Amino acid sequence: MRLVYLALIAALPAVQVAKAAPRLTVEQVLIAQEKQSWAAWQSQDLAFWQRHLSADHVEIDGPNGPQDRAYVLSGVANRKCAVASYNVDDFTFRQLGADGAMLVIMRSSSSPAEIVTSTTWAG
Q: Of 27, 40, 53, 112, which sits with the fewest C-beta atoms within 10 Å of its C-beta?
């Protein structure tokens, strides 16, 4: 019985340390998701995009205008865009309201070079 009691006491500090971990801010979560999405875009990870995109997703695709979730998934599934390399940085975050935010980034990729991309998230 004494060994069990000592083992429980030894485990308590580890549990308390785990609870003390700081919560990520909305900005940190969105930046992490944006970086994951670029990695998934390069690797053409369809499963990621199926989980990541909301049912009401809107994609602004240059001359093709606004497109929906199915358009993005079709593009990934059919491997319409190959990306040899990319870089995302210089993030600017704006909270738009209690349930919406915008993340603007500078990105460069193998094609096209250096454009500003804006990602808007709503909760």
A: 112
